[in-house]
Amino acid sequence: MEKTKIINICDRIVLFSIYATVFFLPISNALIETFSIMAIVFYAIKKILQYRDVQISPVGFAVLVYFIICGFSIFISSNPEISLNAFIGKVAQNILFFFVVAETLNTERRVKNLLYILFFSASVVGVDGIYQHFTHKDFIRHRPYYDIPRIHASFANSNGLACYLQIVSFFVLVSLFIKLRFKLFKILFAALFVLLVICLVLTSSRGGLYAFISGILFMGIWIRTIMISFLALGIIIVSLSYFSWFKQRPDGFFAFLGGGDTDRRQMWYAARMMFKSSPWVGVGLGTFMFNFRKFTDGVYPQGVPYAHNCYLQIADETGIIGLAVFLSILVLFFWSGIKRINSGQKTFFWYILLASLAAVFGYCVQMAVDVIFYSLDLGILFWLLLGLGVAAMERVKLEGVK
Fold first, then answer.
1. CA gap 207, 371 in Å, rounded
2. How crowded is the C-beta side of 92, counted as CA atoms within 13 Å?
3. I need a surface site. Which of 46, 92, 287, 335 has the fewest CB within 10 A?
């Protein structure tokens, strides 16, 4: 009885820690680290006391292989100390958190509570974004305003805020199709969705808008109402971007497609040269910034950057092998998820799985032009989405068996 009681207490602490991590995602990196580590520690205690075999999904197996590849990268790194710190401080923590989320969010009540917390936190961020648009001040973290007409709220930059907004918007949107006990909730969710989209536009983040439109079109394959409504909205956003929202971005909405940003062209040139120097195993986990200056064509005028293409940076640091394994995680996630979507009934977890797939899809689109995978808050958000999607897959599978 004492052992069972301790296991239950650990489980509650793990669940609370996940909720707290979600709530503080846009607010405090220190608290994100504290609560995510707390979730991992108490999850480990719970599993030791239960003494059960851990069931690993195909996605989870691919994640484990990626974990091993990143660990191996330490030993062949151009700077083993940096690689070790990156492995312990980011990769290990994020991947372990993925497994915690995938197993812990196993009931409808738990996921609903997670969504309510996520929506409340996003509401505060949305209000902060509107407040910043008019006052040029952020009331959450008091970050400095960058004297450009783009909001960033509590995030370090506008692209980070855009990533967060487009991901939350998918879960808010599917909530409009889920049967809820109180109709007032749907009105509140609709208002929140409008708020998030307005703030997304005010970020003027091309990567964020690419991601949002991509995720909406993805969801529209299975929910026709979304497809019809947002095809029109997407056309309006792209059209108006030339006349209003992107006046401060003279290179235009589609600049990335033509390599429109000079800084990014220089970053990508250095990244390609770095990849060619060690294509199979890379220069070492977390060492892109350490090696960047060696591969620049002339003098780079800014500080040492990230690659602004997460796939290219993964290839630089862990080689073709590391990138291939990472992409296999995504392929298995989408293959398994779409299989469940096509075979399952439209239950609560069906909608959660669809939102998770759309969110990861949008995230993957933005990864091609931004650094979101390498920031603490948005990096752990990726693994949270992946874990939630895997948990939803299992529930949809069980519902199909019934």
1. 10
2. 12
3. 335
Nearest to 338 by CA among 102, 66, 59, 113: 59
CA dist 208 → 225, 368, 372 (Å):
22, 11, 11
Rounded to whole angstroms, the Cα distance separating 327 from 122 reads: 29
* φ/ψ (deg, to 5) at 54: -85, 125
pTM (whole model) above 0.90: yes
In the predicted model, what is the mean pLDDT of residues 4-14? 95
Total structural domains in the chain?
Answer: 1
- Please identify which residue in the block is written with the tokens 């497609």: 257
Residue 26's domain comprises 2-401
Contact in structure between 127 and 154 (CB atoms under 8 Å): no
Residues 6+ apart with CB under 8 A from 261: 251, 255
Asked whether residue 147 carries a pLDDT value surpassing 80, the answer given is: no
Task: Please state whether 204 falls in left (phi above 0), alpha (psi between -120 and 50) or beta.
Answer: left
Instruction: Output phi, psi for 145, to 5 deg.
Output: -85, 140
Range with the poorest average pLDDT among 1-5, 113-117, 398-402: 398-402
Does 142 score more than 70 pLDDT?
A: yes
The residues, ordered by sequence, that sit 6+ positions from 292 with a Cβ below 8 Å of its Cβ are 270, 274, 300, 304, 305
Burial of 177 (0-12, 13-18, 19+ CB in 10 A): middle
